[in-house]
Each structure stands twice: as structure tokens, then as C-alpha cells.
Design brief:
alpha/beta, four-stranded antiparallel sheet, about 25% strand, six-stranded mixed sheet, methyltransferase activity, Rossmann fold, single chain, SAM-dependent_MTases_sf, about 300 residues, globular, 12 strands
Length: about 300
């Protein structure tokens, strides 16, 4: 297996790293991976991990819901319920920040296609990108969406989109800085970039530590705190305009975390922790399990 070697921090360029914890891949392999932190800027990442060309086997499980769309098990049924609620919220967020009722939208890492389909039904001209052939086929069969492979990202013309969205995708991307630069190139000057990622400084992350479900090693390569995400935007000439908590994520992630702990009654215990996390995020939104960041070009 070829390993992605991280010799310098993608954010600050430093090379002073420390190991923070060891996490287990509970989805696919049972293997262990280190979470490391840059001592200079605090950015956390999984290391070592397979290179992008070889990481596919860690997604090849019927339980990986964003690719398989499985309803198997209580946790996945909760996921589907949360997704239905969040689709409408995402659409409102796009409309509010873009000040558009219709426009051109690119959804990167679209999974099985629910979000671009939702926006297409509301009159948006939608493009979508997804690495999983299985998920692309699902989107084609169920929504008649022609979802492109990741290579298509570099083929879009400059200033093509009013809105670009990455819902829980940035943490998966090997070529992090190159992706930011491409996003800047293909986004219109008055366009908006919306990124949602898990938050390793959240209430539930600090509670569950190495058992936190949203570390999701090795599929999640990068772990973005709110301050780190703002710094990445600034590095690539974006201004952070808004940030929003995703309180529902804490319920799902906490249930997963309790399951990984092999707790009795993981659903009930996850609900309790999710409620605690939600209350905390009301006062301190940067402690939310996941965060949505809205950027504009400088």
C-alpha cells in the first residue's frame, strides 16, 4: 500500500507534528490510524493514510451510507430522517446567501444525489461531482442526474458558478490547497462557497475522544476546527461571511460513537449526548458537532 506522506502542514507549511490519539476504522477495516497535529498552527490530520488512488477499499462497504444509501439499521434510518430536514435548510441557506432564487450550482462530493436533485427541482441549473461509481449510478437511476467523476472539476471554465457546495466533503480530499485554488477559479466574483465539515473542537468530540464517530479514519484525512477553516479561506483569498452550527449531526455522531464504544442502549445514550451538545451549541455555536462555513471571494 502506498502511503500519503505529509512532510509539511498544508495550512502553515510547518513541519513540527505531534501525535494526538489513535483511532480505529470501525466501518471497513478495523485498522488503526493516528491523528496528528501541527504544533505551529493546530491543524489536525490523519497520518499515515493510503494515497487517494488506493483509499477506495475503505469506502467499499454497504454500511457507508453516503455512497450506498442503505436504510439498514437504526443509525442509518436516523441519517435519512436528518437528511430530509437538512435539505430544506441547505436550500434556504443557499438562497439567503446568494440572494438568488435560481442560478448555477456545483455540488462536489454529491453522494447519491439528493441535494442537487432537491435544488434542481427548485429551478437551479445544477452540476454535480462524485468519486463513487456506485453513487453516481444511483443518482442517475433515481434522479436522472448526470453526475461527473472528480476529474471534471478541472474542466469547468473560470467563473462558472454562482454557488459551490461541499457538504462533508473537504475532509476527504487529498489535494487540499489545489482544491481551494480551483474553487476560487470557477466561482463567480460575487458567488458563494459553502463548506460543511465535522468539528474536532465540538462538545461531542471532546467527550468521545478517539471513539468520536466523525473522525472516521482513514476516510477523513483532515480535521477542521473553526479557526483552522477560517485560516484556510484567508490563505486562498476568501472571506468568511457566516458560520452556522449543525446541531442534528451531534445526535447521529453520538449514536455512532456509543455504538463504537459497544455501549448498552447506544441509541438512547446518543440521544442524551446529542441533546447536551445541542444545548451547548446554542450558547457557543463553535462547539457544534459540525459547522457550515459561508465564504466569498476577497
Amino acid at each position: 500500500m502506498n502511503i500519503l506522506k505529509i512532510d509539511k502542514c498544508p495550512l502553515c507549511g510547518g513541519n513540527h507534528f505531534e501525535e494526538v490519539m489513535t483511532c480505529t476504522d470501525h466501518y471497513a477495516s478495523g485498522e488503526s490510524f493516528q491523528i496528528c497535529r501541527c504544533k505551529d498552527c493546530g491543524f489536525q490530520f490523519t497520518h499515515p493514510v493510503p494515497v487517494e488512488a488506493e483509499i477506495g477499499r475503505y469506502y467499499e462497504t454497504p454500511d457507508y451510507i453516503s455512497h450506498s444509501d442503505t436504510h439498514k439499521g437504526l443509525m442509518n434510518r436516523v441519517y435519512h430522517w436528518v437528511r430530509r430536514v437538512m435539505l430544506a435548510r441547505k436550500a434556504r441557506l443557499v438562497k439567503h446567501n446568494s440572494r438568488l432564487s435560481q442560478g448555477s450550482l456545483l455540488d462536489i462530493g454529491t453522494g447519491t444525489g439528493y441535494f442537487p436533485h432537491f435544488m434542481q427541482e427548485r429551478g437551479w441549473h445544477v452540476s454535480a461531482i462524485e468519486k463513487s461509481p456506485q453513487a453516481r449510478q444511483f443518482a442517475k437511476e433515481h434522479f436522472e442526474l448526470d453526475v461527473a467523476a472528480p476529474e471534471a472539476l478541472n474542466e469547468f471554465a473560470d467563473k462558472s458558478f454562482d454557488v459551490i457546495t461541499l457538504w462533508h466533503v473537504m475532509e476527504h480530499l487529498e489535494h487540499l490547497n489545489e482544491t481551494w485554488e480551483t474553487l476560487k477559479r470557477i466561482l463567480k466574483d460575487q458567488g458563494i462557497l459553502i463548506i460543511a465539515v465535522p468539528n474536532p473542537t465540538s462538545f461531542d468530540a471532546e467527550k468521545y475522544k478517539e471513539m468520536w464517530g466523525a473522525y472516521d479514519v482513514p476516510r477523513h484525512l483532515w480535521h477542521f476546527s473553526p479557526s483552522v477553516m477560517q485560516q484556510f479561506g484567508a490563505k486562498h483569498d476568501f472571506i468568511l461571511c457566516e458560520r452556522h452550527p449543525m446541531p442534528f449531526d451531534a445526535f447521529y455522531v453520538s449514536m455512532l460513537s456509543e455504538k463504537y464504544r459497544k455501549s448498552a442502549f447506544p441509541f438512547i445514550k446518543g440521544l442524551i449526548t446529542g441533546a447536551e451538545a445541542w444545548i451547548v451549541s446554542l450558547a457557543k455555536k463553535d462547539r457544534s458537532s459540525s459547522m457550515i462555513y459561508v465564504f466569498r471571494k476577497k
